[in-house]
Design a protein that fits this description.
Order of helices and strands: HEHEHEHHEHEHEEEHEEHEHEHH
CATH topology of the largest domain: Rossmann fold
Strand content: 15-25%
Helix content: 25-40%
Distance between the termini: 45 Å
Radius of gyration: 19 Å
């Protein structure tokens, strides 16, 4: 299998999907001629023409609203919001229209759109280029929410999202875009194969939405993570020597509750890790589900490790991130409880 960065894998997913289905269209700010600010769509306009890959005005509301209309008429738009931080003008369209159109029309209309967004920190982008807003979308019935942690999953999940009959929010951790990340460093390291995450299947390949995967087997404690924090969790488990099982959720909605429950019942302990701020973050939902379904198997309270409850601090970016040291401390506290 070819080796790809996450950017290349995402581009390949769109290329494969556009080649298989003429109804798939790709657009957004700087997406066409320039190929996107992160180059995820580079070459697609040259290959498929300006009617299927094109630039949009600087209007997130307009981009998403146009995509919803296209989807209602049978197209499958895969649109890019340049940074997740820019999605808020489009939030009303996503919540009030995209998420509800199937139900409001009793299935007469559907909304098969994908909204791709670079998310999280890692590029010293400060408050307006580093947010992790996944909880704003997991709360909305009718949306699916995906967060890949590696190139293979990024490609397979994106193709599945494009082929899905309903709207999908596809959050791409920009810290993982240009190369591997071993959980310890503020820049890519080599190779992806450190955790066997680097090879990407050629041509058409799908990863089902709603299926988590175990990245590290363990029996002492379960770590639930997604996106960049999967790599941090793996590093923390190695650093502490604790026999931790690391579950990569991959999709937050639909959530693989069976995989979570099976792991926590086996280990009896759980640590939840995410990059977004802690208060009302998706980790709270995970803690609630673990408490509800695994109460009689828990040997200690469930712990959360998350970003600070503060606007994103540019100068302290690598302290804001939950790193291996903070996750490791949570593991030790849970093990000693």
């Amino acid at each position: 299998m070819p080796r790809m960065t996450m950017i290349e894998a995402i581009r390949d997913a769109m290329d494969v999907s556009m080649g298989r289905d003429d109804n798939v269209v790709v657009f957004g700010e700087d997406v066409g001629y320039f190929g996107g600010v992160f180059r995820c769509t580079a070459g697609l306009q040259q290959k498929y023409g300006t009617s299927r890959c094109f630039d949009a005005p600087i209007s997130e509301l307009g981009i998403v609203g146009t995509a919803i209309g296209m989807a209602a008429y049978g197209l499958r738009p895969c649109v890019e919001v340049q940074f997740a931080d820019y999605v808020y003008p489009a939030y009303d369209q996503i919540v009030s229209e995209a998420a509800r159109i199937r139900y409001r029309s009793a299935g007469q209309f559907t909304c098969p759109i994908v909204i791709r967004m670079p998310t999280g920190g890692g590029i010293f982008g400060g408050q307006t280029h580093s947010q992790s807003p996944e909880a704003l979308f997991t709360h909305v019935s009718g949306l699916k929410v995906v967060v890949p942690s590696n190139p293979q999953d990024a490609k397979g999940l994106l193709i599945s999202a494009i082929e899905d009959p309903d709207p999908v929010i596809f959050l791409e951790p920009k810290r993982l875009y240009n190369g591997p990340f071993d959980g310890h460093h503020d820049r890519p390291v080599t190779p992806w194969s450190k955790h066997e995450l680097g090879d990407v299947a050629a041509d058409h390949v799908t990863v089902p939405l709603g299926k988590a995967v175990t990245r590290r087997e363990g029996s002492a404690v379960t770590i639930l993570a997604y996106g960049t924090m999967v790599h941090v969790a793996l590093a923390a488990a190695e650093d502490t020597g604790i026999d931790a099982e690391v579950i990569d959720l991959r999709t937050l909605v639909p959530l693989d509750l069976d995989a979570i429950v099976a792991s926590v019942k086996k280990t009896g302990r759980c640590v939840v890790v995410h990059e977004a701020t802690m208060t009302s973050g998706f980790g709270a939902e995970l803690v609630s589900l673990v408490q509800e379904h695994c109460f009689y198997h828990l040997e200690a309270p469930v712990a959360r490790v998350a970003g600070w409850d503060t606007p994103y601090p540019h100068a302290q970016e690598w302290d804001y991130f939950p790193g291996p040291a903070r996750v490791g401390e949570a593991l030790r506290v849970v093990m000693e409880a």
